[in-house]
Amino acid sequence: MPENLTIQRPDDWHLHLRDDSMLQTVLPSTVQHFARAIVMPNLTPPVTSLEAARAYRKRIIAALPRNSSFQPLMTLYLTEQITGKEVQKARESGDVFGIKLYPAGATTHSDAGVLDIENVYPVLQAMAECDMPLLVHAEVADPDVDIFDREARFIDQVLEPLTNRFDNLRVVLEHVSTRHGVEFVRSRERHVAATITPQHLYMNRNAILAGGIRPHNYCLPVLKRESDREALVAAATSGDTRFFIGTDSAPHTRSAKENACGCAGTFNAPAALSIYAQVFEHANALDKLENFLSIHGPNFYGLPVNTGTLALERLPTQVPMSIGENKNIVTPWLAGQTLQWRVRDS
After folding, report:
1. Would you give per-residue pLDDT tens digits along the chain (346 residues)?
2. Which residue, 135, 173, 202, 255, could crosslink 194 as a Cys pair with Cβ 3.0–4.6 Å?
3. Catalytic one among 12, 228, 240, 248?
4. Distances (CA, A) of 186 to 36, 99, 118, 135, 240
5. CA gap 262, 255 in Å, rounded
6. Distance (Å, rounded) from C-alpha 272 to C-alpha 30?
7. Which H/E stretch holds residue 254?
C-alpha cells in the first residue's frame, strides 16, 4: 500500500456553511482541503432567489482566510412559489449551480420545502430545459414511515416517477444512504448521480446508540444497516462516475447537539478526507480515490477539474476536540479520535 498520495485538489459537492459568526467558525475547515463546494441554501430565511444567493456568496467570500482561492458554488432552495423565470435567470447568471429539493419537514430548516412534488413540475420542466441540476434530499417526511425506510419510500414514490417524467433533468441523490438508493442510481441510464458522505461510508446505525447515545453521529438521513454501508462502499470504490464526494458537513453548536432533542447534522469537515482515504484503503481501492474526490463531481456538473493538487499521507492525525469559541463551539465528528491518514499540505 502507498504511504503517500497526491491527487487533483478535491471539491465538496454538498456542504452546509451556515451564516454569520458560525460561517466564520467553520469555513476554514473546508477551505483547508477543498477548492470548491456546492453550498446548501437552507438558511433562515432560505436562499430562494438569485439576489439572495449572490448576497450569501458575498458573505462567504468576505469570511475567507486571506489569499484563499476557494469558490463557493451557490444553490437555490426549491419552494412551491419559485418560477421558471427565476430558474432561467439563475442559470444564466453563472452564480447558481443547482436547486435543492427539501421535502417540507424532512430535515434541518426544511419547513419552507415542497409539500407536493407535482406543484413544482413546471419549475422542474424549466430546469430540464436550461440544464439546471436538481439536488434532492431524498426522504419522505411522513411521520408514519419508519425513519430507516424514508429514503427508499421517497425513491419509489417521488424520485423514480420524477426522473421518468423529466428524463433530461440532471438529478443528484444527495447523501445516498441505502442499498436501495445505490441500485436506483445504477438503474438510470443517464442524468442521475449521487453524493456519498464519509459518515455513511464509515459507520452503520449502531454508531448512534452503541454504548450510549452518540449525538455527533446523528444526521439525516440517519445511518443505516451494515448491508447498506457495504453497498455504499462498493459504489464509491467501484469507479462508477455517477458516485462522488459530498460531505454534507453540517455544523451545530455543541449545546444544540448535546441536549434532550439534539439537532441532526455531522460536522465532518476536519476529518472527511482522512476517512475517505481510510475507507478506500480498506477496500483496496486507493487507485479509485482521486476519481471519487476530484474528477467525477466536476464532470457531472460540467466544470473543469481543479489544476492544483493535494497530498495525503498515511500518518496518524488526531481530530480536534472542538472548533470555535464562546457561543460557537462546535464538536467535530470523531473528535479526539486518531485517524490513519492526514492531509499533508493543507
Report:
1. 789 999 999 999 999 999 999 999 999 999 999 999 999 999 999 999 999 999 999 999 999 999 999 999 999 999 999 999 999 999 999 999 999 999 876 666 566 678 889 999 999 999 999 999 999 999 998 889 999 999 999 999 999 999 999 999 999 999 999 999 999 999 998 899 999 999 999 999 999 999 999 999 999 999 999 999 999 999 999 999 999 999 999 999 999 999 999 999 999 999 999 999 999 999 999 999 999 999 999 999 999 999 999 999 999 999 999 999 988 999 999 999 999 999 986 4
2. 173
3. 248
4. 26, 22, 25, 17, 9
5. 8
6. 10
7. helix 254-257
Q: At what angle do helices 50-63 and 20-31 cross, to 10 degrees?
A: 70
Per-residue H/E/C for 131-152 = CCCEEECCCCCCCCCCHHHHHH
Helix extents (H) in 1-136? 20-31, 50-63, 84-93, 121-130
Catalytic, 248? Answer yes
Q: Is 313 helix (H, G, I), strand (E, B) or coil?
A: strand
Instruction: Tell which residue, 312, 247, 315, 244, has the closest CA to residue 277.
Output: 312
Q: What burial letters (b/e) apply to 31-47, b meaning 16+ CB within 10 Å?
A: bbbbbbbbbbbbbeebb
DSSP string over 268-284: -TTTHHHHHHHHHHHTT
pTM of the model: 0.96
The sign of the torsion formed by the CA atoms of 284, 222, 137, 32 equals negative
Which residue in the block uniquely carries the three cell numbers 457495504?
A: 230
- The C-alpha angle with vertex 204 and arms to 265 and 151, in degrees rounded to 5, equals 65
Question: Could you give the count of Cα atoms lying within 13 Å of 177 in the half-sphere of its Cβ?
Answer: 28
